[in-house]
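tokens incoming
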């Protein structure tokens, strides 16, 4: 049961990470975020990215908040997998 839960949450974190990467790619194309998909994706990732954008200032007009956000998701996923392995081993 625990391993299934860890797998599901890990997969959700993977999907959210991919959503952030796709959002970053869409920001390179003019008008892409104004599409229906772009607006939906912005609503999905903006609350999480907004937290990091408030903490990390842009440097030369480039925001490093998505990089830090993905790094935090990766750390959370790694910690979750480690915790899942500990709980299964008990």
């Amino acid at each position: 049961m625990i391993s299934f839960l860890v797998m599901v949450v890990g997969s959700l974190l993977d999907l959210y990470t991919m959503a952030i990467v796709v959002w970053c790619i869409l920001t390179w194309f003019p008008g892409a975020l104004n599409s229906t998909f772009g607006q939906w994706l912005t609503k999905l990732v903006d609350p999480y990215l907004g937290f990091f954008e408030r903490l990390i200032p842009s440097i030369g007009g480039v925001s490093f908040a998505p990089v830090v956000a993905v790094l935090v998701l990766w750390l959370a996923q790694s910690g979750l997998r480690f915790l899942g392995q500990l709980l299964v081993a008990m």
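note: The chain has one domain: 9-89.
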